[in-house]
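Student:
Attend to each token:
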Amino acid sequence: MARILVDREELVVRLRWRERAAARRGDVRVPLEAVRRVTVEPDWWRALRGDRRRGLWIPGTLCIGTRGHPGGEDFVVVRPGAPAVCVALRPGAPFRLLAVSVPDGAEATARRLRRLAPGIDSSTRAREAIPVPGES
């Protein structure tokens, strides 16, 4: 299963080789300063936003790849039975959201990311809604 790591000043979503093949891409790397908010979504399917784009989508079983919506693109690696760590990213990052199922220790992973990311928004533990075109 994919893992969320911190490598120096970068947040890395490390994919196993099968996940790389399914997503048709390598590991995802973003600067830690691009992290805006970190939340845990107990229901894996609630981490999915927008329409599927590139990747592998098996309903009720597995979702790996890129999803698009009016606010940009999300990268997800989620499966049933495990909560998803959702990392909202600032504008300018390659994705708006990273969602990764973490079977053991989702809350601990989220706490560690909140501690390591500079300038994180901790005003609420809820995820942001998808931006709607024309609204500010």
